[in-house]
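Ticket #4471: structure export looks truncated?
Reporter: QA, pipeline team
Priority: medium

Steps to reproduce: submit the single chain below to the structure queue and open the exported record.
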Amino acid sequence: MILSPDYLKVLINPRREKQQYDVFPLTSSQISDSVYLTKDVNKNNPNALLQVALKDKSKNNIHSIKPPGSNKSEERPDLILQKADMRLQTVINNEKYFRFFLLYCAERKVTENVLFFREVIKYKNEQEEELRRALASNILDLYFAPESMLQIRVTELERGSLLNALVTQGPTFELFDDYAEAILNSLLIYLFMGFKESNIFVEMLDNNLGVF
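Actual output as written to the record:
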């Protein structure tokens, strides 16, 4: 398994010191070997890099992703994100903005779907086949493995179908498209609408991150 990307890390803002998150820190070892949970966040350390952990996903049906059917005709690797609101594109692609959006999503217990979507965009923009294969394996381990804390809700049949497609067809650009499009259309668009009305969004703009 390759290491989890940097954007899985969340910078806790000292101005949000009253918030509590269930988190587990990233280490230099593989994520499956290094994860441990804690409820005690060091709120006096504003530079602590934390990865949001999810718990009790069964209470929130919005985690359940049902692909809208097979659509394997996509030509542009970035076409899925191009369908999104321009400002949503900016947030997804910008590390500093994404940190704040991820905090908003964590409060709504939908972090794994947003992280999965962003990793699929990275996967689709990778032109080297072997690197894309490694990214695909990482996505399957992080978001489809039954024991993963970031698992999106899929059936055994769907998981097996993805594994079979990777083995028989290789890391095609459209391998995860059905799931990514389902997340965009049924979740991300509506999350972003709420995010723009939230205090976290105002906080993001107050942090002098440039023109949004």
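Status: closed, not a bug. The export was complete when the record was re-opened. Leaving a note from the reviewer for reference: The two ends are 35 Å apart (CA to CA).
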